[in-house]
Amino acid sequence: MLDDEIQTLNRPRATRTAPPSTAAPAGPAATAAPGMAAPGAPRPAWLGPVLIVGIVLAALNLRPAITSLGALFEETRTGLGMSGTVAGLITSVPALCFAVFGVTAPRLSRRFGPAAVVCAGMAAIAAGLLIRPFATNAAGFLAASALSLAGIALTNVLLPVIVKRWFPDRVGTMIGLYSMALAAGTSLAAAATVPLTSALGGSWRTGLLVWAVLAVAAVLPWLPIAAASRRERSAAAVAAATAGSATAASTARPDSGPRAVRSRTAWALACYFGLQATGAYVTMGWLPQIFRDAGVSAGTAGVLLAVTMVMGVPLAFVIPRLAGRMRNQGPIAVTLGLFGLAGYLGLYLAPAAGAWAWALLLGISNCAFPLVITMIGLRAKSPAGVVKLSAFAQSTGYLISLPGPLVIGTLYQHSGGWDLPLALMAGLLIPQIVVGVLAGRDRTIEDECGMRD
């Protein structure tokens, strides 16, 4: 049953005029799914407020592990003796972890419940952030970072499921709150890491360690939430056993739906997801270094990255609603790509002189993420189709994005500057625009696979 719920919050209603975030809650059968309260079972009064706090704190921790490192990347590379290639590998790890561990989230959630997995994910984030500042070499730093990123991957997938299960009548509000907290955490880590490092003595290790405090705080509300969820799962299991619901057991394995791998639109979405993820992770990992190499101070470079990231707050609300009202989302993909081309051209010609403008332009371009998530919902007819398309597009897309940051780091090391890396990033926007136009066409993967309603 859980597989039918993952990533479907962005799927609009049957009419294209409804915002993706206002999808109707699952039907009555969903209320009896494993991990939810049994019908009529009382729910503790404290659970709702604690869940809200837990969701906000979890979302705040989904990006600081990445953007705080970006702000102190030069100091970290020097302190650990990283080559440009190894540094590029570090910036590729987020995409690898999201591809590998994100795929495991549905299975783990069926086994232990989404709240318990999110709790474990937050603990992994905290543990990784606590360990990595004490690493003495690049391998140890990479392993600790991977631990945090594994927790982020699991939490990233399952937080929307948490919202849908416990706030079925406030999905739009809670997803908006979640999205704003995620963007706020991203921007806060980018802007505040360098000033905090200076205030705490100037060591990059201390500057990275400070974000573990926020992660540890986020674990605390999830401990009682996971315990309450476990009790609800037990009650639901008892109710299901009493009712002898063999039908529910069969629907818990949603094997129906189209094979996304046979759909051209699915491949276009996967390629678009991968190319936009490449741009996003190169931006988070390397943009502060680009500005610093152009003569911008470390503090200002961190703020510029924060500006780029914070653009996602308002546009994450605007773009899905606009896309849901259009039969063809290709023009949005073209527009975002053109903003990115302008930003890279500006970084190539005058990185310091127009730094604020280039940060804004790249921030707008990076909002291809909410667009592709919206298109995933529009390109399938059924929840099962959305799940299969989402899993295929995201896992394949993250794998596509893996070489990007590594190649950028290698080019930077061997060319001694940013001209070649920036030219490559601008060049990748051309196929991104093309596959975005293909993915935006008004068709579904069920139609392409020859399935009928």
Account of the 3D structure:
With 453 residues, this protein is an all-alpha fold. The chain contains 20 helices and no strands. It has helices spanning 47-60, 64-71, 73-80, 84-112, 114-131, 138-166, 171-199, 204-209, 211-243, 246-251, 264-293, 298-310, 312-324, 330-349, 355-365, 368-378, 383-401, 403-415, 419-439, 445-448. Helix 11 (264-293) runs antiparallel to helix 16, helix 14 (330-349) packs antiparallel against helix 19 (419-439) and helix 18 (403-415) packs antiparallel against helix 19. It is globular and about 70 Å long. Mean pLDDT is 80; it is low at 1-40 and 245-255.
Topology of helices and strands:
Elements: H1 47-60, H2 64-71, H3 73-80, H4 84-112, H5 114-131, H6 138-166, H7 171-199, H8 204-209, H9 211-243, H10 246-251, H11 264-293, H12 298-310, H13 312-324, H14 330-349, H15 355-365, H16 368-378, H17 383-401, H18 403-415, H19 419-439, H20 445-448
Helix pairs in contact: 1-6, 1-7, 1-9, 2-7, 2-11, 4-5, 4-6, 4-11, 4-17, 4-18, 5-6, 5-9, 6-7, 7-12, 7-13, 11-12, 11-16, 11-17, 11-18, 11-19, 12-15, 13-16, 14-15, 14-19, 16-17, 18-19
